[in-house]
Design a protein that fits this description.
CATH superfamily of the largest domain: P-loop containing nucleotide triphosphate hydrolases
Low-confidence stretches: none
Number of domains: 2
Number of strands: 12
Structural class: alpha/beta
Oligomer: single chain
Strand content: 25-35%
Radius of gyration: 18 Å
Distance between the termini: 41 Å
Strand order of the largest sheet: 6-7-8-3-9-10
Shape: globular
Mean pLDDT: 94
Length: 241
């Protein structure tokens, strides 16, 4: 069995006097998709930004023996790529130019990135003319072109129709074969059914961590303040409020 590089996170982070993350600890390996869920304000996006190097937490973030907190931005970008929450693009880049922005750290393969997300035929279109789903794919392609081993995604399926949601999930399932994927999900059911590990945050703390198939209903109830039920059809679990 070959050794797979591991990410170890042990951090806290504060916005001024507000402690947004408190003793958040977990490990994840290359070859896995770790999903992060939790109510609004639980610290999900803050956690991703700390790993990405956008925010500077207290503690350590170690990948394959390297403490990422000690790296300069360009060196860190060779290891970690970050796909932010999708918002309307502000600049009139073509799709190809937009994806090329991801190559500054390592000089990745633009053509391969476009092919893997299915945007080759859109390469000369302005990103401002893409649909919401297509723009999300362009964001993923830009991160792919970065050539990193760890990819962070903040709500990659938010506001997407079912076709583009399916496409994004399929891409992530394929990418995890060669990377560590860490994704924040708003949709609990996507997180439970398509992740290898599940991290549940509440008020900046880890409320639960483990195999998504073992997630207790009482954890969901406590974290979200609901009385949930599980419905399982053909091996697919659905949480009902």
């Amino acid at each position: 069995m070959s050794f797979m590089p591991e990410l170890e996170v042990d951090i806290s982070f504060s916005y001024g006097n507000f402690e947004a993350l408190r003793d958040v600890k977990f490990k994840a390996k290359k070859g896995e998709l770790l999903a992060i869920i939790g109510p609004n304000g639980s610290g999900k996006s803050t956690l991703l930004k700390c790993i990405a190097g956008i925010l500077k937490p207290r503690g350590k973030i170690v990948y394959d023996g390297i403490n990422l907190l000690n790296l300069k931005p360009k060196e860190r970008a060779k290891i970690v790529s970050y796909v932010p929450q999708s918002s309307f693009p502000q600049f009139s880049f073509t799709v190809e130019e937009f994806v090329e922005l991801g190559t500054y750290a390592r000089g990745g393969d633009i053509e391969d990135a476009l092919k893997r997300v299915g945007l080759v035929e859109k390469r000369h279109e302005l990103i401002t003319r893409l649909s919401g789903g297509e723009y999300q794919l362009a964001l993923i392609a830009r991160a792919l072109a970065q050539g990193s081993e760890v990819m962070l995604l903040d709500e990659p399926t938010s506001h997407l129709d079912i076709n583009h949601t399916k496409k994004v999930i399929e891409i992530l399932q394929e990418l995890k074969k060669e990377k560590l994927i860490i994704a924040v999900f708003h949709d609990l059911n996507l997180a439970i059914n398509y992740s290898d590990e599940l991290l549940v945050l509440k008020n900046g703390e880890v409320a639960w961590l483990g195999d998504p198939n073992s997630l207790p209903l009482e954890v969901i109830g406590k974290v979200y303040g609901i009385v949930p039920k599980f419905l399982e059809v053909d091996g697919v679990k659905t949480i009902l409020p």
